[in-house]
Design brief:
Blueprint lengths: L29 E3 L21 E3 L13 E4 L5 E4 L5 H31 L4 H31 L7 H11 L10 H19 L1 E5 L6 E5 H11 L3 H36 L5 H7 L6 H31 L10 E2 L15 H4 L9 H7 L4 H14 L7 H6 L1 E2 L13 E4 L6 E5 L6 H19 L13 H8 L9 H7 L8 H35 L7 H13 L1 E2 L15 H4 L5 H20 L15 H12 L6 H9 L7 H6 L1 H14 L29
Parallel strand pairs: 7-11, 8-10
Antiparallel strand pairs: 1-2, 1-3, 3-4, 5-6, 9-10
Helix pairs in contact: 1-2, 1-3, 2-3, 2-4, 4-6, 5-6, 6-7, 8-16, 8-23, 11-13, 13-14, 14-19, 16-17, 16-19, 20-21
Length: 696
């Protein structure tokens, strides 16, 4: 439940019918019926019917006298005929059916307008998208108010479990505002402006005195610089330039976004917007849960951190890298340091004589679409359904060549019409890492397709974390020796242990590096929303948390005049990172349980799900449930457990951890980091970071 209950005493008496009317409520839900067959207790003990009674459940009443059959009046000017004496269950089912009908009319249009905007980032398309989003918010708000009225009117024993759960799902609709007003309209506009800056920003430079100015977009240009360059100056130029073009310009809008989103959240019954975000996970004490899980993983992360720090020291030297300090974030292979996967060439444990998987893919003339076709073949080998042909016709693979600005965040799109699914990706790189990402993106699409037969309120995962965990389940499989052979690589079995360890390193650079980042980002975000982090400390607190949890620092001195969080997509798009954090923990629990269910008896990292129909059946069964069951129930289906557990993740990475410990000992390196010298100065009187920020 994501809304706070209010107890309604409903008196169905015509003289008092306006008890549920609201001046600004436009969704009328009433029932006019023949009273000759109705007892005073047929729906509620408080029913006192008139000669022709009208059951008012929100909004303005309507009344039809003298009819033998009644009319069930819903929002949007619609009505349904009702014969006889409907039960509460039947009344609610009529509302749910009408909600589905109207949602099927509204949602595809919204998705089409969003698609148009994100694949052609013009101001005109942005305005159209904002207007469409407000229209959907109005529809959801009306539906939510009416569903809440039903929910509090009828006791649970009068409505079947599935009907009540569907009603609850609408009543709690993602914490949407109860009413659309100037605040919610401005909120959508502010958020859209921040995203627009992010998607269209360019960083410019001149190479040489007479050279023309060169302007680089984030994708693919700046991402390529951050991923491939090992030149400290060039990396710092790209890192700082991106933050100057996106972070600082977004500062004022972000501050306004915080004010508006808190207002909307409080109107909907939450303490603040961070409270609303945490409720989506249906996990009591979410912050403490994340902290406890991260503590269990800290030794493994610290070993990886020390190993990477040494490898970067060997490249950049003591002028750039302090072997006892945080790592400058611009050196970690990406713009935001949430994934270190581009450092694999630096971190690779072993060189082998076998074919390089990226080189093999390129020699076989793979393109970006073929990577996704290969990913789909993995899923169909497990018994998943093939995606419709329209998916391949309508998806965007690679950067458009007609000069359009597009959103380059890899995204899975569900048009909410049960047939239209798409993806967008700007990447044109053919690498083994891109193949892994293709498995992840298609995993989301497969999940969407699996629950598309459900009623509208159930066409989403039971938890955002569950969505990420199941979608990412196969992404690490592409690095295993058995799957590389499946692709066609000729591998010497004598090198399997080395190839496997290289694969574990690839996975750790992406999955393991993400965990403290995700925790730090959401700790900062929730502190901003609850007011413990004030605007004049936005950047200081950001780097305090990044240093404390991740052991990284900015490569150049930053001040509170900067706004580095505003250069991160998940901040400006208001997407919580807790789903990625929890999803990674769940993912390895799922992998262990599914492999055991399929009869695998060896180490978890040796298990390959390719062609595994037993595992595929378990996963598809879980996905098809959508939101019809709680995330803990679905989690139990896949694991026979109810609790999150880091043990499978630690077991999976055990061979890598042993390697890291040996290498760190051999190099004489200790784990941990001292406080950064490049973060904004500590405000006098502010507590220093906890001991976790200076781990030894």
């Amino acid at each position: 439940m994501y809304f706070k209950p209010t107890i309604y005493r409903v008196v169905f008496y015509f003289a008092l019918i306006n008890i549920f009317s609201r001046d600004n409520g436009s969704m009328a839900v009433s029932l006019t019926f023949d009273t000759s067959e109705v007892s005073s207790s047929s729906i509620s003990s408080d029913v006192v019917p008139d000669q022709a009674g009208t059951f008012m459940l929100g909004g303005e009443t309507s009344r039809e006298d003298g009819g033998q059959a009644g009319t069930f009046v819903l929002g949007g000017g619609t009505s349904r005929e009702v014969d006889g004496n409907p039960s509460p269950d039947e009344i609610v089912k009529l509302f749910l059916a009408d909600f589905d009908r109207r949602a099927d009319q509204e949602f595809p249009g919204l998705m089409e307008k969003q698609w148009t905007y994100y694949t052609n980032l013009t101001e005109e398309n942005r305005q159209i998208k904002v207007e469409a989003k407000i229209r959907i918010t109005e529809f959801d708000s009306e539906s939510r108010r009416t569903a809440q009225t039903y929910y509090h009117t009828y006791p649970s024993h009068q409505i079947s479990y599935d009907v009540r759960r569907e009603l609850e799902a609408i009543a709690s609709t993602s914490g949407l505002p109860t009413y659309v007003d100037e605040v919610t309209q401005e909120l959508e506009d502010v958020k859209s402006r921040m995203e627009q800056r992010y998607h269209t920003a360019k960083v410019c430079r001149k190479k040489g005195r007479r050279a023309r100015k060169e302007c680089l977009r984030l994708d693919p240009d700046l991402k390529r610089v951050m991923g491939e360059s090992r030149d400290d100056d060039e990396l710092l130029w790209a890192w700082q330039g991106w933050r100057n073009e996106t972070g600082a310009p977004n500062r004022d809008d972000f501050q306004r976004f915080v004010e508006l989103s808190n207002t909307v959240a409080q109107q909907s019954g939450f303490d603040d917007h961070g409270d609303y975000q945490r409720r989506q996970y249906d996990t009591p004490h979410l912050e403490q849960t994340m902290s406890d899980l991260l503590t269990n993983l800290q030794p493994l992360y610290d070993n990886l951190h020390a190993f990477i720090r040494r490898r970067l020291y060997d490249i950049h030297g003591p002028e750039v890298i302090d072997l006892n300090g945080p790592i400058p974030s611009h050196l970690l292979g990406g713009m935001w340091s949430h994934s270190w996967s581009n450092l694999f060439d630096v971190a690779k444990p072993y060189e082998t004589d076998d074919d390089d998987p990226t080189e093999f893919l390129q020699e076989q003339n793979y393109d970006i679409r073929r990577l996704y076709e290969t990913a789909e073949e993995f899923y169909t080998s497990m018994g998943y359904e093939e995606l419709p042909e329209s998916f391949w016709e309508n998806s965007v693979f690679g950067q458009p060549q007609d000069g359009r600005n597009v959103s380059c965040e890899p995204t899975s799109w569900d048009f909410h019409n049960q047939t239209d699914f798409r993806i967008t990706t700007c990447s044109s790189e053919v690498t083994i890492d891109e193949l892994s990402k293709a498995h992840n993106i298609l995993g989301h699409t497969q999940y969407q397709n699996s629950y598309s037969h459900q009623p509208t309120a159930f066409r989403e995962p039971a938890s955002p974390a569950l969505y990420e965990a199941i979608a990412d389940l196969t992404s690490s499989e592409v690095f295993s020796p058995s799957y590389l052979r499946q692709l066609g690589l000729s591998l010497d079995e004598r090198n399997d242990d080395k190839i496997q360890l290289n694969g574990l390193m690839r996975t750790a650079l992406d999955s393991l590096a993400l965990l403290p980042y995700a925790n730090a980002v959401d700790q900062w975000r929730w502190g901003v929303f609850n007011g413990s982090i004030q605007p004049d400390r936005y950047n200081s607190e950001w780097w305090d948390l990044r240093s404390e949890y991740e052991g990284i620092e900015p490569g150049v001195e930053r001040t509170d005049a900067d706004f580095d969080p505003g250069a991160e997509f998940n901040i400006v798009s208001d997407s919580s990172y807790a789903k990625h954090f929890l999803g990674q923990i769940m993912k390895f629990q799922f992998l262990k349980s599914l492999c055991e269910a399929a009869g695998h008896t060896g180490p978890i990292q040796d298990c390959n799900l390719y062609g595994n129909r037993v595992a595929g059946q378990l996963i598809t069964t879980a996905m098809q449930l959508g939101k019809t069951r709680s995330w803990t129930e679905i989690f139990y289906i896949l694991t026979q457990q109810y609790n999150l557990d880091t043990s499978p993740l630690l077991e999976y990475f055990q061979p890598l951890n042993e390697f890291l410990e040996r290498e760190n000992r051999r190099n004489g390196d200790s784990t941990g980091w001292a406080q950064s010298a490049r973060r904004p100065d500590q405000t006098p009187g502010r507590p220093k970071p906890s001991p976790a920020g200076s781990r030894t």
